[in-house]
């Protein structure tokens, strides 16, 4: 069993930055894909970014490309989402999720609120 804990959310002004963390316990992220998703009030959950733990390949939604960066710290078994040039439309609860290419995103964190004021 894998437990994921997100942290780093908060309130920031437009143009500001935040860094989200997703720490795993129970096993390492090895051989997993770790994704970031977000859900704004009244909207469906959407994909934001993902990183393949082994190799570090990343993929981003068009809406965040060039502003958000996913990275990992092997020693801390933690994935990060650096969010720069934040916009009010980035306001949402952000979730990290992990799983293998066979199982998909099987494990989910509890979410962390990001609020961007205009």
Structure explained in plain terms:
This protein is mainly β and 118 residues long. 0% of the residues lie in helices and 53% in strands. The strands form two sheets. Strands 2, 4, 5, 6, 9, 10 and 11 form a seven-stranded mixed beta sheet that branches. It is globular, with a radius of gyration of 13 Å. The mean pLDDT is 95.
Spatial extent as radius of gyration:
13 Å
Low-confidence segments, given as residue ranges, are none
Amount of helix: under 10%
Largest sheet: 7 strands, mixed
The dominant shape is globular
Strand fraction equals: over 45%
Please trace the helix and strand order, writing H or E for each element: EEEEEEEEEEE
Number of helical stretches of at least 4 residues = 0
Structural class: mainly beta
State the separation between the terminal residues, measured CA to CA.
Answer: 40 Å
Number of beta-strand segments: 11
**Chain-averaged pLDDT:** 95
Main attributes?
single chain; 118 residues; mainly beta; seven-stranded mixed β-sheet; four-stranded antiparallel β-sheet; 53% strand
Q: Would you kindly provide a brief summary of this structure?
A:
With 118 residues, the chain is mainly β. It has strands at residues 3-7, 10-13, 18-25, 33-39, 46-52, 58-60, 68-73, 78-83, 92-99, 107-108, 112-117. The strands form two sheets. Strands 2, 4, 5, 6, 9, 10 and 11 form a seven-stranded mixed β-sheet that branches. It has a four-stranded antiparallel β-sheet with strand order 1-3-8-7, with no helix packed on it.
What is the element layout, followed by pairings?
Layout lengths: L2 E5 L2 E4 L4 E8 L7 E7 L6 E7 L5 E3 L7 E6 L4 E6 L8 E8 L7 E2 L3 E6 L1
Parallel strand pairs: 2-11
Antiparallel strand pairs: 1-3, 3-8, 4-5, 4-9, 5-6, 7-8, 9-10, 9-11
């Amino acid at each position: 069993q894998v437990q994921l804990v997100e942290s780093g959310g908060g309130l920031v002004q437009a143009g500001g930055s935040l860094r989200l963390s997703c720490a795993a316990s129970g096993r390492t992220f090895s051989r997993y894909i770790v994704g970031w998703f977000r859900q704004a009030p009244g909207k469906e959950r959407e994909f934001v970014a993902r990183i393949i733990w082994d190799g570090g390949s990343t993929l981003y939604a068009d809406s965040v490309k060039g502003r958000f960066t996913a990275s990992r710290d092997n020693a801390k078994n933690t994935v990060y989402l650096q969010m720069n040039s934040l916009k009010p439309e980035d306001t949402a609860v952000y979730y990290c999720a992990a799983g293998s290419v066979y199982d998909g995103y099987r494990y989910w964190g509890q979410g962390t609120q990001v609020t961007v004021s205009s």
